[in-house]
Automatic annotation (TrEMBL):
Keyword vocabulary terms for this entry: Lyase, Metal-binding
Designated name of the protein: Cobalamin (Vitamin B12) biosynthesis CbiX protein
SUPFAM superfamilies attached to this UniProt entry: Chelatase
GO molecular function, one term: metal ion binding
InterPro entries xref list: CbiX-like, Sirohydro_Cobaltochel/CbiX
Length: 133
């Protein structure tokens, strides 16, 4: 059985930083993504060092009635954070929410950096910059 789209939300997960200059491109990216969607709910969260936190965003979406949350990491690769830290955080929060009466499915997806389009785009930029030196 598939979950109706109206009950599915996506959280874009970035590492986080206390530096506002580091955070700004993520806000711009979120705005650009939202402009390309219809009514799909997409939020931004940070694993640490910045707000909104992943914990906060998951709780907010659960309280808003979403029954499935897809976590899409804006990471280049799956290091320790994505292999261990984030899954443990999500499992703990999912258990807490279940105890509060929320029936919530949380799916952690592979990082966007592993997508072939990302590797191609980075390769093209590097080749262009090297070629114009």
């Amino acid at each position: 059985m598939t979950t109706p789209a109206a009950t599915v939300a996506t959280i874009l997960l970035a590492h986080g930083s206390s530096d506002a200059n580091w955070l700004a491109p993520f806000d711009n990216l979120l705005a650009h993504i939202r402009s390309g969607l219809d009514s799909e709910r997409v939020e931004l969260a940070y694993m640490e060092l910045a707000d909104p936190s992943l914990h906060h965003q998951v709780a907010t979406l659960a309280a808003a009635g979403y029954s499935r949350i897809d976590i899409l990491p804006l990471f280049f690769a799956a290091g320790r954070h994505l292999r261990k830290d984030v899954p443990a955080m999500l499992e703990q929060q999912q258990n807490e929410l279940k105890q509060q009466g929320y029936d919530l499915e949380i799916s952690l997806h592979s990082p966007v950096g592993l997508e072939p389009e990302v590797a191609n785009a980075i390769s093209n930029i590097v080749i262009r910059r090297i070629s114009t030196q």
